[in-house]
């Protein structure tokens, strides 16, 4: 199995663990065993074992806690790059245009910066001129997520595998990133 196919498998594994994904873990394990890159293969095999060990309900709960309730491990590229910066909207549009220009049809209702969607795009698009800049952006994002994932999480292993399939992240700073203002309001808000 090629690196592109390994990225496709990883994109499935970091998607929400719905019932069909859970029941496809045997198939995913078989696919992981056939990945040519031994290190990536081993990380994904261990991740799948960790998911199984955790159990379906616990895995869903863990997934939500890790990816939905933590800004530093969210699954949206532009959230890492821009945070609360208005430029994030333009980045959405540019990603949507890029995906469409390569004939990649986005199924479902996810935003164009959803990491599993972008990894799937990289798995099927052979236009290096278009994919290399995306890979570089994703490498920085994946490095940031890995810095914040608990080492006991099976998702840490999946992201470690993904990091091996992307270029080195280089400078991990996001210069256009703005944090949301979460300070106290300058006036009291009446409730009730």
**Estimated share of beta-strand residues:** under 5%
Count of distinct strands: 0
Q: What's the overall geometry?
A: globular
Give me the strand/helix succession: HHHHHHHHHH
Major sheet attributes: none
Contiguous low-pLDDT stretches (5 residues minimum) are: none
Mean pLDDT: 90
Distance between the termini: 60 Å
Query: Percent helix among the residues?
Result: 55-70%
Overview of the structural elements:
It is a single chain. By secondary structure, the protein is mainly alpha-helical. It has helices spanning 3-13, 19-23, 25-33, 38-54, 56-68, 77-82, 87-101, 115-124, 128-148, 154-165. Helix 1 (3-13) runs antiparallel to helix 8 (115-124) and helix 4 (38-54) packs antiparallel against helix 10 (154-165). The radius of gyration is 18 Å and the shape is globular. The termini are far apart.
